[in-house]
Automatic annotation (TrEMBL):
<feature type="domain" description="Reverse transcriptase">
    <location>
        <begin position="1"/>
        <end position="209"/>
    </location>
</feature>
<dbReference type="Pfam" id="PF00078">
    <property type="entry name" value="RVT_1"/>
</dbReference>
<dbReference type="GO" id="GO:0003964">
    <property type="term" value="F:RNA-directed DNA polymerase activity"/>
</dbReference>
<keyword id="KW-0695">RNA-directed DNA polymerase</keyword>
<keyword id="KW-0548">Nucleotidyltransferase</keyword>
<dbReference type="InterPro" id="IPR000477">
    <property type="entry name" value="RT_dom"/>
</dbReference>
<protein>
    <submittedName>
        <fullName>Probable RNA-directed DNA polymerase from transposon BS</fullName>
    </submittedName>
</protein>
<dbReference type="InterPro" id="IPR043502">
    <property type="entry name" value="DNA/RNA_pol_sf"/>
</dbReference>
<keyword id="KW-0808">Transferase</keyword>
Amino acid sequence: MNVKQFGFTKGRSTTEAGVELIQQIFGAWEDSRDAIGVFCDLSKAFDCVHHDTLIRKLYYYGVTDRSLGLLESYLSDRIQRVDINDERSSRSAVNMGVPQGSVLGPFLFLVYINDLPHFVKNGHGIVLFADDTSLLFKINKHKSAFDEVNSTISEIVEWFSINNLLLNERKTKLVKFFLSDSKLIDTNVMVKNEVLDIVDTTLFLGLTLDSKLRWNSHITRLAKRLSSAAHAVKRIRRLTNESTARLVYFSCFLVL
């Protein structure tokens, strides 16, 4: 599995993914460069996996013979239908997507997206957490550097298209990470003829990142959530027993 993939991988988590991205940003600053973060939003990525493409990739990575046949059988001849108020729709063949809620589903998706990092070159970076795709461009302060950013993004978008994955450019955000005493050149970054929205803060796997890597926004957001959780536990403790209150406590706080 590609080393830039942190999702559904033993010994790796959102924490390691966050450390990787932040280290890349600091690495750019140490080289007297700025960093452009592009946080891609893929629409229903697990449902868009093309079965024939997945089988070819499995074969490329060395899955052959009976093992490949078993996986091909696992994906084939699946049907779906909808039940509403005792009414049942006709059957419809499922020709795309990996079964969600299964053990194999996440693994098959990781195989499907595994070659994406090879398209990020020239010292730029990428961090994957399953379908969460974050690009990090280390740039010098001149216009040609942004031309390279746009060129690389065009290649990534083409890869998404070839692999039947849908990039939602309107929900894809861009953050210009820079030190307080520097100023970035004002140049647009494009995705499919759409100018990406430039934001000061964005959510990255539970972290609130801002353009100067100050943690004020993250701490404020976390404090509000902790306050709400503490209030909920205080209220529920008066209405129930200790065992139920502990269950509410862990469900509220461990996810923060």
